[in-house]
Write a structure and sequence with these properties.
Elements (H helix, E strand, L loop, with lengths): L1 E6 L9 E5 L8 E11 L1 H8 L8 E2 L3 E9 L11 E5 L9 E5 L3 E3 L6 H21 L7 E4 L5 H13 L2 E6 L2 H9 L4 E4 L5 H8 L5 E6 L6 H6 L1 E9 L13 H5 L4 E3 L3 H4 L3 H16 L7 E6 L3 H9 L6 E5 L1
Parallel strand pairs: 9-10, 9-12, 10-11, 12-13, 13-14, 15-16
Antiparallel strand pairs: 1-2, 1-4, 3-5, 3-7, 3-16, 5-6, 6-8
Helix pairs in contact: 2-3, 2-9
């Protein structure tokens, strides 16, 4: 038996139950890990509310770090006793221990602590694919990145600076603006005080940006399109404010033949060799001192409901983790 968070219905934070669960013996292609820390991400809210569907009852959480306790048949890339980390499905990371597909696990360098790994895997790999694959930044670009003071955002600030990219970030307070700028964001716009479309046009001298990275969704989508230069790309990778409303393709034409994509980390990491390459680059950025993972909130696993309340209320900055 182990302690874990489970939901038997979709709804608010109170549907999460801290309970005992039975762990099966790892089957073919599976591994059991003892988790030292679990990551907290907005995708967990989508699964809890039912915006992302899964069979119930179910677990929550998509990332963690710990030690391998057992492996199933045919698992050869990891071994008992090794330190590992992961960001991938199925949900169930909110647990002291769990059995999961071994193909999502990567070996964790000794120089990176478990807390750091749990806080960075999903968010760090997200920035990696956004910046290096979805729209590959070469250096010298000016970009717009929403939620610049969040967990993904603060990693993006630092990664952009390391690449020589000028990042314009949106935030919800002056305090978050200062936090984003301290991590490498060149221009932080408090959208509660300023119109971010006007500020982007001002900063870019009317040209707009070649790419917008938007995890907010409904509240920012059309204004984000207005920030793009002709032939620019809208990268809509989340919907914290709600799903993007339906729109006509002519919206893209009228703004200059824009491109749009709705990517998901788990498509980019589906192939084992690509996951290894992505993780290696992320680990290298951390070990080289170019990325500092900021864990600003720590919660006991049993207090996961409060963690979700804080996350949805936009009270968190940087990364958050749950401690089993």
């Amino acid at each position: 038996m182990t302690k874990a968070i489970r939901i038997s219905e979709n709804g608010g934070p109170d549907v999460m139950e801290y309970t005992d669960v039975e762990l099966p013996i790892p089957g073919p292609g599976e591994a059991r890990i003892r988790q030292m820390a679990c990551g907290l991400n907005y995708i967990d809210v989508y699964y809890r509310t039912g915006q992302y569907a899964q069979s119930l009852p179910a677990g929550l959480g998509m990332e963690g770090a710990g030690v391998v306790e057992a492996v199933g048949p045919d698992v050869t890339h990891i071994h008992v006793g090794e330190r590992v980390a992961y960001a991938g499905g199925p949900p169930g990371a909110y647990a002291a221990a769990r059995v999961l597909p071994a193909n999502v696990l990567v070996k964790l360098p000794a120089s990176i602590e478990f807390d750091t790994a749990a806080a960075m895997m999903l968010q760090g790999l997200t920035v990696q694919y956004l910046f290096r694959r979805t729209f590959r930044l070469q250096g010298g670009e000016t970009i717009l990145f929403h939620a610049a003071a969040g967990g993904v955002g603060l990693i993006a600030c630092q990664w952009a600076r390391a690449l020589g990219v000028t990042m314009i970030g949106t935030v919800s307070s002056d305090e978050k603006a200062e936090l984003a700028k301290a991590h490498g964001c060149a221009h932080a716009i408090n959208y509660r005080k300023e119109n971010f479309v006007e500020r982007v046009k001002e900063i870019t001298e009317g040209k707009g940006v070649p790419v917008v990275y938007d995890s907010v969704g409904k509240e920012t989508f059309f204004d984000s399109l207005d920030c793009l230069s002709p032939l620019g790309m809208m990268v809509s990778y989340g919907a914290a404010s709600g799903p993007v409303p339906a729109f006509e393709l002519k919206e893209l034409v009228s703004r200059g033949s824009l491109f749009i994509t709705r990517p998901s980390l788990f498509h980019y990491t589906a192939k084992r060799d690509e996951l290894e390459i992505m993780a290696a680059e992320l680990f290298g950025m951390v070990e080289g001192g170019k990325l500092k993972i900021n864990i600003h909130q720590r919660y006991e696993l049993s207090n996961a409901a409060q963690a979700h309340r804080d996350l949805e209320a936009r009270l968190t900055t940087g990364s958050s983790i749950l401690i089993p």
